[in-house]
């Protein structure tokens, strides 16, 4: 498994990323009042989703996913199993946005 590195010191920021051979633009936001992160996703200039909250162990975009979205799930997860929240102190410290390898999942 690989993961998407989130650079918290740059938030809010956006970056382009190739996922499973397709280019996407991700924009990362942080809500300091309630200590959570949200993601916007674009593909080819089309906004696919805005304000997708990062929830530990839950695939991103699960409620809206169709063929325009990344082919395999992106899941906030702590490989060590010590954390269960995606908050400022855990994201990119112990909790990462994991994506399946291109060869995985059939």
Order of helices and strands: EEEEEEE
Q: Rounded to an integer, what's the Rg over CA atoms?
A: 13 Å
Report the principal-axis shape: globular
Low-confidence stretches: none
Question: How many beta strands in the DSSP annotation?
Answer: 7
- Total number of helical segments? 0
* Overall number of domains: 1
Span between termini: 14 Å
Q: Tell me, rounded to a whole number, the average pLDDT.
A: 91
Query: Would you tell me the structural class of the helices and strands?
Result: mainly beta
Q: Major beta sheet, specifics? A: 4 strands, antiparallel
The fraction of residues in strands falls at: 35-45%
Which bin fits the share of residues in helices?
Answer: under 10%
The largest sheet has its strands arranged as 2-3-4-5
Give me the secondary-structure topology.
Elements: E1 2-4, E2 13-19, E3 22-31, E4 36-43, E5 46-53, E6 74-77, E7 96-99
Antiparallel strand pairs: 1-7, 2-3, 3-4, 4-5, 6-7
Offer a quick outline of the entry.
This protein is an all-beta fold. Helices cover 0% and strands 42% of the residues.
What does this protein look like?
There is one protein chain. This protein has 106 residues and is mainly β. The protein has one domain. It is built from no helices and 7 strands. It has strands spanning 2-4, 13-19, 22-31, 36-43, 46-53, 74-77, 96-99. It has a 4-stranded antiparallel sheet, with no helix packed on it. It starts with a strand and ends in a 7-residue tail after the last strand.
């Amino acid at each position: 498994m690989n993961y998407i590195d989130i650079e918290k010191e740059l938030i809010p920021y956006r970056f382009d990323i190739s996922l499973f051979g397709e280019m996407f633009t991700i924009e990362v936001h942080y809500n300091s009042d309630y200590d959570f992160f949200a993601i916007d996703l674009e593909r080819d200039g089309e906004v696919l989703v805005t304000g997708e909250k990062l929830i530990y162990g839950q695939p991103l975009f699960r409620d809206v996913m169709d063929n325009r979205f990344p082919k395999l799930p992106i899941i906030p997860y702590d490989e060590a199993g010590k954390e269960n929240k995606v908050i400022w102190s855990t994201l990119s410290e112990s909790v990462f946005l994991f994506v399946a390898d291109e060869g995985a999942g059939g």
